[in-house]
Amino acid sequence: MHSIFMQSSSMADSIMSRAATMEIPINSNGDSRTIPEDDGLEQAAKAQWSLDEKADSRDLQQVMVSGPNLNETSIVSGGYGGTAEGIIPTSSIKGSNMHHSGSNQSGMAEEATRGIAVEKFDIMKKWGLNTYKCTKQLISERFGRGSRTVDLELEAQIEVLRDTKRKYENVLRLARALTNHFYSMVQTQHALGDTFADLSQKSPELRDEFGYNAETQKLLCKNGETLLGAINFFVSSINTLVNKTMADTLWTIKLYENARLEYDAYRADLEELNLGPRDAVTMARIEGAQEEYQAQKDKYERLRSDVTIKLKFLEENKVKVMHKQLLLFHNAISAYFAGNQQQLEQTLKQFNIKLKPPGDDKPSWLEEQ
C-alpha cells in the first residue's frame, strides 16, 4: 500500500514538474494557445498523456516548443534530447539553396582576379630582375669591369648613319630657312608689282615706266612661285628621308642595342654561375640561366640581322632619293636665276611637281594633321 502511494506521489510530482516547466505550444498557424490560469495543471496533464500516445507527434511538438524561434530551429535525428551529432542547422540548408549560384559566380570572379594579380606580379618580378641585370651590366661597362659584345663592322655603319642624319638635318634646316626667305621675297615682289600697276594708272607721265616694272615684278613673282614649288618638294623629300626612313632604322638600332645589353647581362650572369659550386640548387639555377641566355642570344642575333638589312636598304634608298632631289634643286635654281622660265617649268614637269592654284595658300586638313 505504501509502495502504491509512493508511485502515485512520484507520478503527481512528475506531472506537476512537467506542467511547471512546459511552454505554451504553437498551433499550425503560428499563434500561441492561451491557457486559463485555474485549469493549467489539467491542460498540462492532458497534453502530456497525448504526447505519450503519439511518439512521432511528441518529437515534433517538443522541438517546436523548446526551439527559440523558427529562424533558428534545427532538424533533429534520433529524437529530442539526443546527441548533437545528428543536428543539421536549417539555416545552412537555406543559405546553400539561396546562395549556391551566387557563391559560384563570386568564386569564379575571385579566382579570375587572383589569376590576374599573380600574372601581373610575375611580369613585374621578371621586369625588375631584367632591369637589375641590365643596370649592373651597364655600370660594369662604364667602369671598364665588364665585357661587351662588339660587331665592329656594324658599329661603324651605325655611326656613319648617325653622322649622316645630323648632316641631313642641317641641310633640311637651311632649305627651310631658304624657303621662308624666298617666300617673303616673292610676297614682296607681288606687292611691289601691284603698287607699280596702280601708279601706272594714276601717273600718265610715267605710265610706261611703271608698267614695265609692274610686268617685270609679276614675271619674277610667277617664276618665284614656281621655284618655291620645287624647293618645297625638295624639303618634303628630305624631311621624309630624315624623320621617317632614317628614324625608323635608328629605332631598330635602338632595339638592337638594348638586346645587346640584355644579351651581355645574361651572358655575364651565366658565366658567374658557372664559376660557383656545382650543387643541386646551383645546377638548377645554371639550367634556368642557360635557357634565358639562349633566348636573349636569339633575340640579339635576330635584331642584328634586321639592322644589317635596314642599313643596306636605307643606303640604296638614300642614294636614289638624293640623286633625284639634288638634280631637281640644281636645275630649278639655275633656271630661275638665269631667267629661263621655260626651263624652270620644264624642270617641274620632269619631276611631276604640280603647283597649287593661285590663292590656294591654305594647307589641306590632311597637311595640318
Structural description of this entry:
Helices cover 79% and strands 2% of the residues. The protein has 369 residues and is mainly alpha-helical. Mean pLDDT is 75; it is low at 1-12, 14-96 and 362-369.
Short note summarizing the structure:
With 369 residues, the protein is mainly alpha-helical.
Helix content: over 70%
The beta-strand count equals: 2
**Most strands sheet:** 2 strands, antiparallel
Strand order of the largest sheet: 1-2
Shape: elongated
Mean pLDDT across all residues, rounded?
75
The number of distinct helices, counting runs of at least 4 residues, comes to 10
Instruction: From the alpha carbons, calculate the radius of gyration and give it in angstroms.
Output: 50 Å
Q: Which percent band covers the strand fraction? A: under 5%
Which stretches are poorly predicted, pLDDT < 50 over at least 5 residues? 1-12, 14-96, 362-369
Order of helices and strands: HHHEEHHHHHHH
How many angstroms does the end-to-end distance come to? 121 Å
Helix/strand class: mainly alpha
Map the helices and strands.
Blueprint: H1 2-21, H2 40-53, H3 55-66, E1 74-76, E2 87-89, H4 90-98, H5 100-142, H6 152-202, H7 207-274, H8 280-338, H9 341-350, H10 365-368
Q: Which key phrases capture this entry?
A:
about 375 residues; mainly alpha; two-stranded antiparallel sheet; 10 helices; 2 strands; disordered N terminus; disordered C terminus
